[in-house]
Structures are given as structure tokens and as C-alpha cells.
Amino acid sequence: MSLEPIPHPIRALGLLSGGLDSTLAVKLLLDQGIEVECVNFHTGFCIQSHTGAMRNPKPGASPPRHDALFAAGNLGIRLHMVDIAEDYVRIVTNPKYGYGKNLNPCLDCKIFMVHKAMEMKESMGFHFLFTGEVLGQRPMSQRRDTLPKIDRESGAGGWLLRPLTALRMPPTEPEKRGWVDRSRLMGFSGRNRKPQMALAAQLGIREYPSPAGGCCFLTDENYARKLQDLWQFRGSREYTMDDILLLKAGRHLRPAPHFKLVIGRDEAENHFLSGFVAGRVLVRFRDMPGPVTLVEGTPSTDDLTLACRVAARFGKGRELSQVAMLLETNGQQEVREVTPMAAHEISQEWYV
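RE: above sequence
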């Protein structure tokens, strides 16, 4: 242990998702009298940032909440919300260490976020970083061989503490210098969350998301398939923020390589999709309730008729012989009378 004077107060910056692990990591350090602030990075792929707000709420249900903001409020700490979506594109499209089971670049992602947090540590005068990572919990980024790689390639070196698994790792600089009492840290490992849940009860932490829940769309098989489809038919691994937002909503059907339909499934999604008409064709019923449909790509006149027929299949007029569909392109409107497509005419291969 260093004999250097211990600075006061010790200030630590943590990465906070609002999940159980990162919340516990904050609490363990707060209980040692350490001054804690946290950062939550926005990449554009956070599940809860959009899904909760996009769905029709059930009667009496609480409004959607942001887990990191909720946890920070309960813990009484300052939270920095930082948008890294623009820089994050290169992590998603060209990860050095590849993808996990779907399109999740978990190791590259963690290195990138810790590097960004290190820049904040240096510029804002924090003494060290910490995360809620647990050895062996994530198959790609939390292995014994990858945790040191995160430290090294992010530039964190020995200044990144993992309070929940510290006793299974070599001491970090904050521990060596006596800033953190190592004996009051944990030695959790593996995927079992019961030890964390027991610790939460002991520390008085009652509200937290499902411990096994995911927070990134890139780990979701359905979302990853839609993103791969987007890249395949564009011929390049590129995306805009509009692209990744639209992949989160509606039914996605691709009747042909050069165009795709996105069809709203409820009123909330209809409102959401209506905000993305720029550069797309909007299709909706003229005289009755039904889904909002976006057509993107380079559809021909016949393709737009097909889009109207498919959209009509998902509305209340699906059994009628003819329905009037309204098409809007760059502010110009036209009406087409079409026969709703029969269920057997919609190929399962169209679904993305």
C-alpha cells in the first residue's frame, strides 16, 4: 500500500446503466465515503430509450422510465448523459473483435465506452473509474482474458476498478493507494445473479430492472436480422439514426430487393412512423382506421400498388372488395383504389 497522503475527497466516475450490477457498484463505493458521479452513454441502440415510449401504455401503468436516471436519483448521485451515437457507428460497422451471437460488438463497445469515460476522468478531475462488470457474466466481454484487454486498450490501465468482482482480480491503483478498502469489495463471478440480489437486499436496494435483462438492441436476434437486411440491400455497412430508430418499430416486409414496407402495429407505432416520411412514401387508409405504412427504397408504380394492397390487409377493411388508400410523397397526395391482399398472397419470405 502506498504511503502517499490520501486525497480528500476521493472522486470516482462510474459507468451506470441502471441495472442491478452497476447500481450495486455505486452503492459499495458510496458506503466507503467515496464521492461518486456516473455517466450513461447513448449509442442509439438502447432498448428502453425507445420501446417503452413507443408502445401503447396499459391502463394504470406507470410511465416509461430511464433506468440510469432512476437509479441515480435513488442513489443521490449526479449522472452525466453523453451522446456517443455518431462516433459509435464505426464500432457497430467495423468491430475489431467481431460480433457476439447477433450484431453485438460487446468487447469493442466496452473498450470504446471505457476510453470515453477515461477522457472524462482526466478532464473532470476524478481519481479513478469503475464499472459493474462481473467476471464470467458476459461470454464476450467479461472473461478472464478480455477484462485486462479492456483495461489496456481503453487506456484505463490500473485505474479501472470493478467493485463486484475485485477480489478475483489483481488489485487496482485505487486499492493499492488505500483510496478504496479492498476488504469491503466483492468477489462475484459467473452468470448467477442471486449473490447480487442478496447484496441488494442487504444494502436496502429494492427497485431494479430484471437482473438478466438486456439493454441493447444489437443483442436482439430480430433487430439484428433487420439491420443485416438493411446492409445487404444497401450494399454497405452504413446507417443513419433514422434507420436504426425505424428498425425498432412495426412489421418489416421486403417484397423485392429494391423496396421495403414498415407497417405500424398499433396507434403508438402509427404516430411514431408518421415522423419518418422524409425520403419515403407514406401509405394509409383514406376513410377508415388502419396502419400507417412507410415504403422505402425505389418502388415503381406497381410496387406502390402492391404496398397499398399489403397495408390494406392489416386494416379493418381487409374483407372489403375495394378500399381507398392515400399515398403521400414529398407532400403530394394521391388516392388508389385497391383490393386488400389475401393472407395467402403475402409470402412469409417477405418478412424481415
